[in-house]
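new request in #modeling-help
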Amino acid sequence: MVEITTQVGAAAQPRAPLSRQRVLTTAVTLADAGGAEALSMRRIAQALGVVPMALYKHVANKNELLDGMIDVLVGEIDPPADDTDWKTTIRRRVLSARRMLLRHPWAPEVIESRMKARTTPTPVVLEYLDSMIGIFRAGGFSIELVHHAMHVMGSRLLGFSQELFEDSSDREPDADTIAPEEMAARYPHLTELAMAVAHDQESVVGSGCDDQSEFEFALDLTLDGLERLRGAI
Amino acid sequence: MVEITTQVGAAAQPRAPLSRQRVLTTAVTLADAGGAEALSMRRIAQALGVVPMALYKHVANKNELLDGMIDVLVGEIDPPADDTDWKTTIRRRVLSARRMLLRHPWAPEVIESRMKARTTPTPVVLEYLDSMIGIFRAGGFSIELVHHAMHVMGSRLLGFSQELFEDSSDREPDADTIAPEEMAARYPHLTELAMAVAHDQESVVGSGCDDQSEFEFALDLTLDGLERLRGAI
DNA sequence: ACCTGAACACCGTTCAAGT
DNA sequence: ACCTGAACACCGTTCAAGT
């Protein structure tokens, strides 16, 4: 009964042989479905129909697996266009990174935790950063200003500077829900802002705040600020 | 033997009675020393000389404990000055938040993970955000622009927009160290930048990149950009 | 009524015993 | 030589048994 899957072929190999790539993409799929907390060596192995120890032939340990997953994500970011100005190229690429991130909401947390620990980013990430720097340089930025620019862009380079709070659906149940009138009394400014935003978009069904255009607003404010400094620093 | 610590006093109570505050500050101290991964209910209990289950009288579960720890950190941010303009007030407060964060390097990861999950931020965080919004409003910002501003500031409000990579000391050992000449060949732009930064600060002993001034550069670029829009939006 | 030890259902990773 | 089951040292949390 247990042997059913392997006894058919002459070579007696599992249907699709395990590979680093297959381990990584399975892990990404698992995280997409269940979040970062659903990622365990044991569960990945189970999803692949394999004993947990089999994974250790393809990744040294869990941290290396997480690094590999980040590489998979960076690979999903569109390559730079080479037929337009620096600003458009950077803008498109960052927005592509953001789209990637929306497909993998667990990524910021994992990237955050891994960037704290690693000695050097993986070659894939280095290549990506190098390419970004190259775009600024080709656009006429001094190396000093490029350095500032990379810091200013910060995590936006990888598609996020985290929204302080995710949208309201899909949350843990809230223990201490507060009455709206008490909310308004205690946090008057927050309430004013929430009402203004809601009123602004009364036609839209959603959360009352368009994260995408807010992201673009921040991105453009930053890019415009950098452009103003180009040549001056 | 086991009874030694409790049999002395008449009331037979542990030396310092457990309290939510003591649980939280102990957890913060533990994380400061060992990072986010060192934070376990069992270890916190051990540090308090208590059985793990005793913690559950003061926090509902680990997530609520993490939220409580974030509240402790927000409490460390200096209150706003009220004798100066909006820009100085925001700037000082954000820099105070950043100093808090430098004392607690595990915080961004924890904040990131908790903000993904919670329904509503804790009252302490809400109060902090409300106060920030109030400063912008008092500075003559329209509610629409304040909304944009809060998004633009993003995680910088809590003292971080994460440095993509931490400084080089205190890292995991690096498996695949690369030869400098191969580094230069593969990542020319990255190398140019690294060299320029190193040369820039040859007098300084440290990592060759002043994170503090880079943070301030990004902060000021953002604040200046917002000021330019004040009144226009 | 209160407290808590043991237990449950998990982890990542090691390692020796099996083929 | 290769593979892997069992084991180790952990988790967060439940719950019944003890006082």
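bot summary: The first helix of chain B runs from residue 20 to 34.
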